[in-house]
Design brief:
This protein is an alpha/beta fold. The strands form 8 sheets. Strands 2-1-3-4-5-13-12-11 form an 8-stranded mixed β-sheet, with helices on both faces. The protein has an 8-stranded mixed β-sheet with strand order 7-6-8-9-10-14-15-16.
Length: about 950
């Protein structure tokens, strides 16, 4: 027993020697009261863990408490710590009192370590004033840049800032500088000590703002959000960013199932081993002290984590500097008479500035001024299942980096869509949405009241994403335009801004102005502006349309030329010796010659030439041949032109078309034109910088009565009633639908612009990506094309004008009808009738001649000639028929004598013509 006691005594002595060998290095800390004990617990047990691993020194904590606003007491406590020989002072976290501590520490060169946000002084940081201070809290400018990057990444076009102190507004200086003069203004609202925030929240709601930044003390965050929920400001289209790095410590259990997006930042990774180990130390240490302390790693305060890391980095500096020179504490005085500085303070501070450590709050790197300019932030989002969940990280070099994939985001959105009922706003307008016709005895309700392209489109999307929907009509049946006087929207856009609908779907054009107020999916249909106009009315068929290839003036000139050339031929032939011929070529002593070119033959020659038939007799003289040749050339050209253009003129519909493009409309004032009031087409002309469209807008705006309409149907009816005096500028899709059913209307010109129809949603809607994906899927599968074919070409009379156009095309390719060429037959019949009349007159004249020669009555001569004419068996005809035998013999004798004389005369003429033709060396041949 005695030996064991001696051995125990020796071991205790050795242990005491080892304990005594550790130098005590006191460190001080100043905390603000005892209400928040977590930072102090973190400080004490961080020292305890350091002491467990250190062999040569032991950190001894000395803690003081002061009021956040008590500068005098704070100065007194600092001097007390200096007198007790502390080697560093941690805290306090108040901006007012921390400045006093920093000033005293700089004077006596004791390291001052702080863990709170510290704004940059006016004029920048003075290295001399900050020479002994190190701040583990993220540097103010860099933290503000992190918030700015997050807002830019979220594509917030406008937002409202709610703050409670001037320091909070200073933390957001980079955010306030995001927007330029032309961007939407940023609204800044300060809250006071009044705990009722509802009036402020209602004002924000009435402004239509859905993006809110909360820069308030953590103790106010939950109450603000609770009251926001009461006034319907925690819906799915509201988004909140909480700037406090301690927002994750709050209990959001009652708000987890709100539909709004709540995002905040966190300086630590709550799943890391370091934080779990530190929390374990805190709980075990307090348990040994018979105190109950419980905290989960997910709810550790930022200040507590920073105190833990501050102790760790200070201990590292002491350890490594102590290896070269023993660090010892010194009791110092704040009095001016006995003022002296701690010799190791500046060395420790400089070492900490260049040393890189990794703690609970991630990498710890300082700049030359002791500011923590490099750090990592977790971007966390309130999740229904897990509370706050990390979705991204941020650091000064890389910016925002998302840790979740696009597939995860899409899956989360799709899951939230399950069993959700969307309110879908729309307007009546064929073919997108119309009232369904009731059958006898049928009662329609809900979505069954409607039919159209929009209904089938949203139905297809709902089947892909698995949600329900309810169609509602906007009261004013308008698309949505911004009134610059009242500063308000109307129509579908207003319905979305008032949160009365989740989706707006119809022929709603995506425009820049609307895009500033609402979000759009990818376009489900592309289009442009075009002109609706009445088809030109064809003129009635003209019986003499075959005359159309030549104008009246040309016909008159041709007739004049015909008469002139005939007279010229007659005169020249009388003057030319070559056209005077011997009537009996066989008799060389004949003293008389004849000229066959009387006026009748001249007219006949020119007529035969222009008709392309030629003539049996030809001119002999050079002059007359030149005239005849020129006339033939003229006749050939005119006949060719006439023939080439005849078919075109006869088949062409003579139209009354006046316009072919927007330029034509702008250059005239007879035809009025207008657009739908308050639509995107009206905005296109109103905001266009193109001179033609500016001129058109000026004309439309100044025309009275107004050329603007309340609906496309009104514009269509106005074009029909205008009978070519009114044109309606509208979107090509609606125009195509109308022209498929109203065959008297047509599209004039091409597209004036290019745009698309999209599905509208409130700004920052979480469902935009999913719905856009569904639209893209329907497009790839050809369902969008099928829907358009169905509602444009098939339903409610579609395709009617296509059939009419096919029939018209077939008719235009057929043979010419009697309506076109009937005039030719009339002329032919008239000519035949005239010839018949002339034949009768000639027959009667011959009857009179026979009656005179035979000395019979005209009636007897007429009967004899008619009897001979109708006797078709007789192939030769005597000179005339006798009424008696004696007269018949005389007639026969005379007929034979005349026949011989005529034969002889014909033979002479033929010989003469042959000799004449043989003599011709220059001339024209007519066939």
């Amino acid at each position: 027993m005695g030996g064991m006691r001696k051995l125990s005594a020796i071991l205790i002595g050795l242990l005491a020697c080892l304990v005594e060998a550790k130098r005590e290095i006191p460190i001080g800390a100043i905390f603000q009261g005892t209400d928040n004990i977590e930072p102090e617990i973190a400080f004490r047990y961080a020292i305890e863990r350091v002491n467990m691993h250190e062999k040569h020194f032991e950190l001894v904590p000395i803690v003081k408490y002061v009021s956040p606003e008590d500068s005098f007491k704070t100065e007194k406590k600092v001097c007390e710590l200096a007198a007790e020989g502390v080697t560093a002072i941690f805290g306090p976290s108040s901006l007012v009192t921390a400045g006093i501590v920093s000033s005293i520490c700089r004077t006596i060169e004791i390291p001052h370590i702080i863990t709170h946000w510290d704004p940059e002084p006016l004029g920048g940081i003075d290295p001399e004033l900050q020479s002994m201070t190190i701040n583990l809290y993220p540097e103010a400018d860099v933290l503000s840049r992190a918030l700015r990057d997050l807002i830019v990444d979220y594509s917030w076009k406008s937002f409202t800032i709610i703050y409670d102190s001037d320091e909070g507004l200073m933390r957001l200086k980079d955010i306030l500088q995001i927007h330029g003069p032309g961007d939407n203004p940023i609204t800044v609202r300060q809250i006071d000590d009044d705990p009722d925030y509802r009036p402020l929240l209602k004002d924000i709601q009435s402004s239509g703002e859905s993006h809110i930044i909360l820069e308030v003390h953590p103790s106010k965050i939950l109450e603000i959000l609770r009251q926001a929920k009461e006034v319907k400001m925690l819906e799915e289209y509201q988004s909140y960013i909480i700037t406090s790095l301690d927002a994750h410590t709050l209990d959001f259990e009652e708000l987890r199932y709100s539909r709004s997006n709540i995002t905040t930042l966190r300086l630590m990774d709550t799943k890391s081993f370091d934080i779990k180990n530190a929390v374990h130390d805190w709980e075990q240490g307090e348990s040994r002290m018979k105190r109950i302390f419980r905290v989960s790693p997910e709810h550790v305060q930022t200040e507590s984590a920073l105190f833990n890391d501050a102790v760790k980095i200070f201990a590292t500096a002491i350890r490594e500097l102590d290896a070269t020179e023993e660090i010892s504490a010194s009791r110092l005085s704040c009095g001016s008479k006995n003022l002296r500085q701690w010799p190791f303070g500046l060395r420790i501070i400089n070492y900490m500035k260049v040393k890189t450590e990794h703690g609970i709050t991630g990498p710890i790197i300082f700049d030359d001024n002791g500011q923590r300019t490099f750090f990592h932030l977790d971007i966390i989002e309130l999740n229904k299942q897990e509370g706050f969940k990390k979705i991204a990280t941020w650091d000064p070099r890389s910016g925002v980096n998302y840790t979740r994939s696009i597939e995860d985001v899409h899956l989360q959105i799709v899951e939230s869509l399950q069993n959700k009922t969307f309110i879908v706003a729309s307007r009546i307008g064929a073919p997108f949405l119309t009232w369904k016709e009731k059958k006898e005895g049928e009662y329609l309700e809900g979505n069954n009241r409607f039919e159209g392209y929009s209904l089938e489109l949203i139905d297809g999307i709902s089947k892909i994403l698995g949600f329900q929907y309810r169609m509602e009509l906007v009261p004013d049946n308008r698309y949505g335009s911004y009134n610059k006087v009242t500063k308000k929207w109307d129509g579908l856009v207003k319905h979305l801004l008032d949160r009365k609908a989740d989706i707006a779907i119809c022929d709603l054009t995506i425009t820049y102005e609307r895009r500033t107020a609402v979000d759009f999916t990818m376009p489900f249909m592309t289009l442009g502006i075009s002109i609706l106009y009445a088809k030109p009315v064809p003129q009635p068929k003209d019986l003499f349309s075959f005359l159309s290839p030549l104008s009246l003036d040309v016909w008159i000139y041709m007739a004049t030329a015909y008469l002139g050339v005939s007279v010229l031929l007659f005169v020249l032939s009388r003057m030319a010796p070559a056209d005077w011929e011997n009537p009996h070529p066989c008799k060389t002593d004949n003293e008389e010659v004849e000229n066959i070119w009387d006026m009748i033959n001249a007219l006949w020659l020119t007529m035969g030439s222009i008709m392309g038939q030629g003539c049996d007799i030809l001119p002999k003289a050079v002059s007359t041949r030149v005239v005849a040749g020129m006339w033939w050339f003229f006749a050939l050209i005119m006949l060719s032109s006439y023939t080439a253009n005849l078919a075109a003129f006869l088949t062409m519909e003579r139209m009354d078309a006046s316009i072919e493009s927007a330029d034509d409309l702008a250059k005239q004032s007879k035809i009025k034109y207008g657009t739908l009031s308050g639509g995107s087409t009206m905005s296109f002309f109103q905001n266009s910088n193109f001179s033609t469209y500016q001129r058109m807008w000026a004309a439309m705006e100044s025309t009275r009565p107004s050329v603007f309409t309340k609906s496309n149907d009104e514009g269509r009816d106005r074009v029909i009633k205008g009978r070519g005096l009114y044109a309606f500028l509208m979107e090509s899709t609606s125009l195509e639908y109308i022209t498929e059913r109203y065959c008297e209307l047509t599209q004039i010109g091409g597209l004036l612009d290019s745009k698309g129809y999209g599905i509208a949603m409130p700004v920052n809607s979480p469902y935009r990506t999913a719905i856009s994906g569904a639209v893209l899927k329907m497009q790839e599968e050809g369902k969008l094309h099928q829907l358009k074919q169905r509602w444009w070409k098939e339903m409610h009379g579609g395709g009617r004008c296509d059939e009419a156009a096919t029939t018209s095309s077939a008719d235009s390719a057929a043979e010419l009808g009697i309506d076109n060429v009937g005039g030719v037959f009339v002329v032919l019949a008239s000519g035949c009738f005239c010839a018949f009349v002339l034949g009768i007159l000639e027959f009667l004249w011959n009857v009179r001649k026979v009656a005179v020669e035979e000395k019979v009555t005209p009636w007897e001569a007429l009967k004899a000639e008619l009897k001979f004419a109708v006797n078709f068996s007789i192939t030769s005809k005597p000179v005339h028929t006798t009424l008696s035998e004696s007269s018949s013999e005389k007639s026969l004798s005379r007929s034979k004598s005349e026949s011989r004389r005529d034969s002889e005369s014909v033979g002479q003429r033929m010989n003469n013509m042959i000799r004449g033709s043989n003599r011709d060396t220059i001339g024209f041949v007519y066939k």
